[in-house]
């Protein structure tokens, strides 16, 4: 291993990446399994306004944002593994609430708990990777983990559609419950604790305050965090809207998961390519190229969409989404690594801060984009012009400050 790494994981590299990917995947699983079932859940729970079913997606991300406040500092104090165990427990509680939901409000409460739980694996996984790697090697590992993470959307909606057809939407949550139990068992048995007791901090308000001030004082890192939030917000707007666009506007019905899988393949391929490209070209040029390309592509698509009459042909929207998501796939791992780079000595708290701020930004902006759905893809396209465009401007400033 080259000098970009710190220590080697005790398990093999391939198993380490696969395990971290599966531990992280609960956000994606909790979302993508549900996509084909949103309309049926809304009907069963008596949801009167179609756009309100988007909240079943949004509440998971809100829970993730709030939960991340806890897990980063906690993992620096009690260790990585106990923090992840806590996350799995909350996720399981949320899944049980969702299984027995009889109203939209009860469902949203369960989804909030699922998000609170999923925040643990999402945040602490980054800290575990930072315990072992830094710089381009960390970006490479994070990109490979994101490849496992992002491959979930290829199969999850298909699995969800199959379960929905056989046993109804509540069985999808039962599947999530069994999956959580299996993955936490694998994690418990195979991965040793990565933060030795002598390197752990103490539970003290002063420590948290000083660490928070250190993160906030780094203006370049904060800029990357905001840039990540904007990019993530555009993607959340996509997740909020895609089921209504493809399944309802284009009337794909039960074929929707297969079209969604095609889109997920594009973002998965871009993550695989990123693992190689980031070592050759560097994180900053790659990120700025993807941000600018995504915004310009969306501007062209927006103009074309208006010219074609608001609802373009299916081939047009699928081509646009595929290229768009390939660009998005180059952003998350790299922006996360750029945000975390200065904070190896407080990786847990820094990871928490990055996650909280970027996710809250994304939830706010992604909800606005999703709730603007008006039976055309125009609001989503406009979101992808403005948010990645703003992300590019901020990243360019940050790159100039650290040149």
TrEMBL record:
It holds the Pfam family MFS_1. It is a multi-pass membrane protein. InterPro entries: Efflux_drug-R_Bcr/CmlA, MFS, MFS_dom, MFS_trans_sf. Signal peptide: none annotated. GO terms for cellular component: plasma membrane. Residues 13-403 form the Major facilitator superfamily (MFS) profile domain. GO terms for molecular function: xenobiotic transmembrane transporter activity. Keywords: Cell inner membrane, Cell membrane, Membrane, Transmembrane, Transmembrane helix, Transport. It is found in: Cell inner membrane; Cell membrane. It comes from the Bacteria. The chain crosses the membrane at residues 12-35, 55-72, 84-102, 108-129, 141-160, 166-189, 216-238, 258-279, 286-309, 315-335, 347-368, 380-399. GO terms for biological process: xenobiotic detoxification by transmembrane export across the plasma membrane. SUPFAM superfamilies: MFS general substrate transporter. Belongs to the major facilitator superfamily. Bcr/CmlA family. This is Bcr/CflA family efflux transporter. It comes from Amphritea balenae. The lineage of its organism: Bacteria, Pseudomonadati, Pseudomonadota, Gammaproteobacteria, Oceanospirillales.
């Amino acid at each position: 291993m080259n000098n970009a790494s710190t220590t080697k994981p005790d398990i093999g590299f391939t198993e380490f990446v696969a395990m971290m990917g599966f531990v992280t995947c609960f956000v994606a699983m909790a979302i993508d399994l549900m996509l084909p079932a949103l309309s049926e859940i809304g009907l069963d729970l008596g949801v009167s306004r179609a756009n309100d079913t988007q909240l079943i997606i949004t509440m998971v991300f809100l829970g993730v944002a709030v939960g991340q406040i806890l897990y980063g500092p906690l993992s620096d104090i009690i260790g990585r593994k106990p923090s992840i165990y806590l996350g799995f427990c909350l996720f399981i509680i949320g899944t049980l609430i969702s299984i027995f939901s009889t109203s939209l409000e009860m469902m949203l409460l369960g989804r909030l708990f699922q998000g609170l739980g999923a925040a643990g694996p999402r945040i602490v996984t980054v800290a575990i990777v930072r315990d072992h790697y830094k710089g381009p090697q960390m970006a490479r590992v994070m990109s490979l983990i994101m490849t496992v993470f992002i491959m979930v959307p290829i199969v999850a909606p298909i699995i969800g559609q199959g379960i929905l057809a056989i046993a109804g939407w509540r069985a999808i949550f039962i599947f999530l419950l069994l999956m959580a139990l299996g993955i936490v068992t694998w994690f418990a048995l195979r991965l040793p604790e990565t933060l030795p007791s002598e390197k752990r901090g103490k539970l003290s308000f002063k420590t948290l305050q000083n660490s928070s001030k250190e993160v906030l004082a780094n203006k370049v890192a904060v800029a990357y965090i905001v840039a990540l939030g904007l990019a993530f917000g555009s993607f959340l707007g996509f997740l909020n809207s895609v089921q209504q666009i493809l399944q309802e506007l284009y009337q794909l019905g039960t074929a929707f998961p297969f079209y969604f899988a095609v889109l997920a393949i594009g973002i998965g391929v871009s993550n695989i390519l990123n693992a190689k490209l980031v070592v050759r070209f560097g994180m900053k040029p790659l990120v700025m190229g993807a941000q600018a390309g995504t915004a310009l592509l969306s501007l062209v698509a927006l103009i074309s969409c208006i010219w074609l009459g608001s609802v373009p042909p299916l081939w047009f929207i699928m081509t646009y989404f595929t290229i768009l998501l390939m660009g998005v796939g180059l952003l998350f791992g790299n922006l996360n690594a750029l945000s975390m780079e200065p904070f190896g000595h407080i990786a847990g708290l820094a990871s928490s801060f990055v996650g909280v701020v970027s996710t809250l930004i994304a939830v706010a902006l992604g909800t606005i984009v999703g709730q603007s759905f008006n039976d055309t893809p125009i609001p989503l396209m406009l979101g992808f012009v403005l948010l990645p465009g703003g992300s590019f401007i901020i990243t360019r400033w940050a790159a100039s400050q650290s040149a």
